[in-house]
Amino acid sequence: EIVLTQSPGTLSLSPGERATLSCRASQSVSSRNFAWYQQNPGHAPSLLIYGASNRATGVPDRFSGSGSGTDFTLTISRLEPEDFAVYFCQQYGSSPPTFGQGTKVEIK
Amino acid sequence: QVQLQESGPGLVKPSQTLSLTCTVSGGSISSGNYYWTWIRQHPGKGLEWIGYIYYSGSTYYKPSLKSRVSMSVDTSKNRFSLKLNSVTAADTALYYCAREGSNGEFDHWGQGTLVTVSS
Questions:
Q1: What DSSP line would sit under A38-68, residue for residue?
Q2: B112 — contact with chain A (CB < 8 Å)?
Q3: Is the confidence at residue A29, as pLDDT, over 80?
Q4: Which residues from chain B sit within 8 angstroms of residue A93, using beta carbons?
Q5: Would the CB atoms of B107 and A90 count as touching at under 8 Å?
Q6: Among residues A4, B82, B83, B110, which one has the fewest Cβ atoms lying within 10 Å of its Cβ?
């Protein structure tokens, strides 16, 4: 199965700063089959980005996704207080679907 | 708005069978456009896909869990279920049901239910 490795494990930033989260796949993944999720404490993950760069319904435009092949990036242009959470990447082009281990974005 | 809700025992004894049900509201499980999925999250850890079921009853399970997993669907009650047998402490986790959308992403999730395996 495809292993997804996220970096960094924890990102300490202040509100208003830019966040850049990375996800590297152990083998090439179609951009069509790549997603990002946000998880707040005590809540289920929620879909942020699908198809590597498409925002899910209701997701603010400060969130953007990019990448192809084995390297994908989630960017949050200006952190809002509600953005401090854990973010997971996921691929679904090769079965079974797999997730990264998560990046925690915490308030500095 | 589609909503999913897990239900089932929160405590299961080792070697027994974990059984959970996910009830779907706000949309039909028989719409045909989606796969209905179970995902788990070990405490403080990442997410693990367990498998999916289609409204027709066809299934696909994670190979490493395949020997212990079964899923079923009840379209008349708009719900689907998970059974995981021969559980151990390693199966203690938050179990989520989710809908796999047309592009393969998980676009709707239940709130999750914690299942603890302990005697």
A1: EE-TTS--EEEEETTTEEPTT--TTEEEEEE
A2: yes
A3: yes
A4: 104
A5: no
A6: B83
